[in-house]
Amino acid sequence: MPLLVEGRRVQLPQSATDLVRAHPLLEERARLLRGQSVQQVGPQGLLYVQQRELAVTSPKDGSISILGSDDATTCHIVVLRHTGNGATCLTHCDGSDTKAEVPLIMNSIKSFSDHAQCGRLEVHLVGGFSDDRQLSQKLTHQLLSEFDRQDDDIHLMTLCVTELNDREENENHFPIIYGIAVNVKTAEIYRASFQDRGPEEELRAARALTGGPNLSTSPLAEPPHFVEHIRKTFMFLKKYPSPTNTLFPGNKALLYKKNEDGLWEKVPSPRSSK
Hints:
Structural class: alpha/beta
Distance between the termini: 50 Å
Mean pLDDT: 87
Strand content: 25-35%
């Protein structure tokens, strides 16, 4: 089934600019999102998603009410939501394996048993800019194409990517929006930044860093805290050169839950049965 905008099938391939010109409602939504002020999101009720991570929940979740991610330069942040049960997925895609990521996003929503109830699937794409290597443009096309190949009707609601998310300063290009959050209970999507990126921020960042092709696809466009973030990640890798043995003894997972104050709290790993 096709990717739809206002009930009409999207004709691909098209640039993001051509697509919004064909659908003025998309252009208006992108303009409104760009015009928002950035909201600082606190840790209460937040599940932060790092690069190449995926999170999914629903309004029934008593601990998590906000999904969010930032630091997207050439990356795109994808939100897929089922309007019937409110199941919401947010992922931070870097183009490393878009063909595999989109089915994962779809399956994460379908994992909720009542996904077939009345409602529809709506997708929002935000991020990227007019970078010199055209990595953002490539990722935009990949995501639109892969969502168009899925078996279900998917309604494109927000498209604020690549040239639609670009600003120029001193002949250099930068993203306008680096991060967004989605309120799972109200479905509101807004510009956001985050101080708390836990739990285990350095560990999760190390996983993405060691599995990626480089440190940054767009060094000039990175946010101010990027260098410090990379420095902390390298220090973490230096401290734990063999994390499988030191951080996951007995191959046990690190478990966290939100406490009564809405903050992450480590949970003791269950003892293995003998």
